[in-house]
Amino acid sequence: MAWVLLLSPAAAAADHGGTSHSDGSIGVIVDYGSRVGKEEKVAMELAIDDFYKKTNQRLVLHSRDSQGDPLRARLSAMDLIEKQQVQAIVGLHTWEEVSLVAEVGGQARIPILSLADSTPKWATDRWPFLVQASPSRYLQMNAVAAIVGSWQWRWITVIYEDTDSAATDIIPCLVDALKQVGSEIGYLLALPPFTVNSSSPLSGELEGLKGRQSRVFVLHSSLSMAAHLFETANELGMMEEGYVWIITDRTTNLIHSMNSATISSMQGILGVRSYFSQSGPRFQGFYLRFREKFHSLYPKEDNHEPGIFALQAYDAVWSVALAMETAPSSKKGLIQPFLERIAISDFHGLNSRIQFNRRSLAPQRIFQIINVIGKSYRELGFWFEGSGFSKTTNEKSTYSRQLQVLGQVLWPGGPWSVPRGWSLPTSQKPLRIGVPQHGTFKQFVNVTYDGSHYSVTGFSIEVFNATLEHLKYHLTYELIPYSGNFDSLVEQVHLKEFDAVVGDISIISKRWEHADFTHPYSEPGLVMIVPVETESRPWLFIKPFTKAMWVLTGVITIYSGCVVWLIERNHTSAFEGSILSQTATLLCMSFTTLFSLHGEKLHSNLSRLSMVVWLFVALVITQSYTANLSTLLTVQQLKPSVKSLKDNNFVVGCSFRSFIPKYLEEVLGIDPKNMKDIRSFEEYPQAFRRGEIAATFMESLYAEVFLAQYCKGFVTVGPTFRVGGLGFVFPKGSTILPDISEAVVKLYEKGEIMYLRNKLVHSQKCLEVEAEDDHSISPDSLWVLFLATGATSTVSLAIYVAGQMQHFQDFMLENIGIWRLISAAMRSWMHHHAQRTQFSGGDLKRTSSLVELGTYRGSHGNV
């Protein structure tokens, strides 16, 4: 369908065969069936009429209906150029139409003025006859991001109509803008372009979005698609409390044309709309004439007010008309100057100042923020590029980066309270979080496996869980053990094997190359631990020997003394006297043997043998005691330092899985040969006791836990080296990281970190392992000597006892008669005593006994 419009009376006369002629012809390609096409067509006709009234020049509009089909638009352009010989073409609402028609215009050297809302910046470079007559609206994505950032919603779901311009330009702009406010697109839903006969299964697509966590949706689509989508969203309950909907100007620029039924389905949404001033007599005159003409042409439309598309079409036609005012009308050789005249246009249009830069208008920099309420909408205020939100547009306006300055917002479902922007997901994929499987300190991350699944516990996990409780959204995750070292674990985030890493990960510069760290949940610091005690040691003299050694020495000393006493008691006058006196002499002789020899006082060779062996053992014991005590006194006076470690080539213990070995080598200058790898928490005190290491280096929190469990014998010495600190790891540029860091800071402020830290430290049971026992001499070192002296004394005692037993047997044989007489007397007395109590005839018994006794005496003589 082709329409030829002669807007001025003179032009109309010429069209009907009068003698007057037109001064120029302009081609128009719009979609007659769309609201945008209707507004643009009416506005262009008014522009031609106003231009004739002002300049008395007659211009003709040749209009074609594209019906929203890019191919049809291309054919229409070819028809206008070849048959109507138009000097310029104005219109084209989509980028797809622009790209095809610009190619035709370039070949015919005809200027093409595009009214598409999104044209790539490179388009005018590719097609030299293309003029972008509508301002770019990419900056509106900064306004959308500012709305999102005002309430710190982190994950956004974007729904867009899948056109080339949206996918290649609008979405990337939104991604960049969201990054500036610390948010990101969690999910992208592309919908096929909407048509009248479209039966897109929106219910299935939207149902899938309900299962995800984000409840903040940004919609960038045509008006028809938006109306269809919100109708479906209402049916699915996605316009209820807790949801947030933000729509771009592709929809809001036409919100004035919606009927009450459609707009009521959009209750509570926020919209970004291109701003244009509606003040001034020129606009008011245009406004009245537009309403009248639009109503006469399209009486079925519910609203007859002009929008931004009408104003842009009006100004575009004026740009062409002003360029035609002095340009030749039919000399093709002068077409290039005509294009230049369009490009240098500079006048005040209905919408804004019309001034091209490289054949493109300046981007739209002011947008209006609206809130749909009931069957209409409320204008909250404005957003200015580079300034922020403001309630007015005058020079005295005040600006804010927070939309709250514009007043209260009504959200979907009717509440005035701000939605949190997320809900517990039912289908969202959890974050894959790596944890160290073989850490040195199991108190921080402890991974166990029960045969079916891994269980991860520890201080770091408790801190992470406490951190998540302070987030403004729910974070689902799964912990995955990783067996490599810490540097490799952090690198897995960069390689996208993990979405984050949680554990006792030290914050060092090398790891920043691969990932970002949260605020540390433990203060940085590297300290040195050594097995040294305070200088006040009144009982140091007992430390050369262990308790067992002291007891064994005392027992063997007393035992040896008892053997000598028993052998020498009949030959030495010193051993005579009361029991107390002999005991004192025995003990004195036993212990003075440690310092002097009593060989000249001993009479028995057995006692001399025992004493010689014991004297040798005593000599070894006293010398060992003296040497060990000297060592302890010397060690106690040492002032451990990094310098003394290096000067004496002492071995230092540390975990080779951490950053510490490299720090000790590169910063403190300790030779790697003097480092020992400690793989577990329990190996540290064992290495100290065995003398394998002289010191160890740990981070401050590790040291605090270590000293809490091994509470005696170890101390931190020297300065604290400000390095390290524990943090959680996230990918570079992660939008979650600022929230996690903020939550960690809140843990500090609320004292939760201190509570968890105290819980960790106090849960360590003090094992009371003293590192100085490494220097104490135990019986294990001298058991052979103790066995020798004990055996010698025992053999001497056995020989002595055997000799005494022989003397006893001889004595008993020599006096056997006496013993028999005593035995008979005792039997007689006991028998007589028993009989006297039973009957009187006991005398006979007693006489018989006496006769027997006399007979015995007669045979043996008097005793």
TrEMBL record:
Bilayer disposition of the protein: Multi-pass membrane protein
Pfam families tied to this protein: ANF_receptor, Lig_chan
Question: What positions does the domain Ionotropic glutamate receptor C-terminal occupy?
Answer: 432-763
Name the UniProt key words of this record, in alphabetical order: Glycoprotein, Ion channel, Ion transport, Ligand-gated ion channel, Membrane, Receptor, Signal, Transmembrane, Transmembrane helix, Transport
Q: Which family does it belong to?
A: Belongs to the glutamate-gated ion channel (TC 1.A.10.1) family.
Q: Enumerate the PANTHER family for this protein.
A: OS06G0188250 PROTEIN, RECEPTOR LIGAND BINDING REGION DOMAIN-CONTAINING PROTEIN
Q: What is this protein called?
A: Glutamate receptor
